[in-house]
Amino acid sequence: MPYEIIAAICSNKIVNAAATKLNETIFKRIGFGMKLKHEDEMNKVKARAPVYKAQAKYEIEDMEAEQALKRLDHEERIRLRTEEIESRRQHNLESIVAQSYQAIPDDVSEDPVDPDWVFKFIDACQDVGDEEMQSLWAQILAGEITKPGSYSARTLQLVRTLSKHEAEVFVRFCSCLWSIDSSEKQYPIVPTPNIYSAVPGINIDYDALQMLDDIGLIRFDALAGVSKIFGFKNPSPNIRVGSLSLTFRYFRTPHLFRYKEDQCPLEKDVNIGHAILRGYPVMMSWFLWYLNGIAGLERSGFKNLSMR
């Protein structure tokens, strides 16, 4: 019974001065006034429920549509970025492969190239867009196809980290390499005193050699040797010359040198310095430096019998 009376007052079924005063005085403090307001609001909400539901559905659908558009836009940006990267990589690889074909000799090994090496090669050079650096990678690929196992995975990683400047200096250094007689080793020959000064067309100086040593391409001892100086002083390693002639090969082109009769020793050390190249590529040569090397040999007492 008490609840029914209070409920009747709260619902305005009982309306008089006493009910109004009672409601204002205590109902809010015992929760009924709030309940009345709450119930009233709930009734309003229930009355507008279909509208709210429709609006909520629309907002949800609109939100879902917006999220879907954002997701599609995000995915599209990923696709476009990926396509651009892969397109550039494909162009780089095709350029390198095409250049390598020009450098592969007619006589190549029948041994296949390790598939793992091929994938590592692709990963290492696919982002190289500079034409000169592509030429370096093309030479590496050509060398590996010609003789599988020529270049290790470590070599690929080292070349991958080379800057263009470092690669250019190394290429200039490689243009100084000669082989002697039947030896397969390659020796850098720099006519004295040009090792510590710029030579036109080459620019191989002390700092350049030290830089190549720092990045691990050669071993350079400023006091003893890979000074790569051709002469007859003590720095090691030396080649013992006991014959009257030597055959120097410059990029597979042989040149026979014989001591001039008035300068012929019985036995003499030829200090040329030995580069520890660990299988790195020889790319190209400069004709000027080629002539410089021959001139250095002739100044040291040899006569070139191959150039008449």
What this model shows, in words?
The chain is an alpha+beta fold and 308 residues long. Among the domains are: 2-47, no CATH class; 176-308, no CATH class. Helices cover 52% and strands 11% of the residues. It contains 10 helices and 9 strands. The protein has a 5-stranded antiparallel β-sheet with strand order 2-1-6-7-9, covered by helices on one side. A two-stranded parallel ribbon has the order 3-4. A hairpin with a 2-residue loop joins strand 6 and strand 7 (253-259).
Oligomerization state: single chain
> How many E-type strands?
9
Q: What is the mean pLDDT?
A: 66
Shape verdict: rod-shaped
Major sheet attributes: 5 strands, antiparallel
Helix percentage: 40-55%
Write the H/E string, N to C: HHHHHHHHEEEHEEEEEHE
**CA distance, first residue to last residue:** 135 Å
Strand content: 5-15%
Q: What order do the strands of the largest sheet run in, or round the barrel if closed? A: 2-1-6-7-9
Low-pLDDT stretches are: 191-199, 223-243, 259-295, 302-308
Topology:
Layout: H1 2-10, H2 17-27, H3 32-47, H4 49-103, H5 115-125, H6 131-146, H7 153-160, H8 164-174, E1 177-180, E2 187-188, E3 190-191, H9 206-214, E4 229-230, E5 238-241, E6 245-250, E7 253-259, E8 268-271, H10 287-299, E9 302-304
Parallel strand pairs: 3-4
Antiparallel strand pairs: 1-2, 1-6, 5-8, 6-7, 7-9
Helix pairs in contact: 4-6, 5-7, 8-9
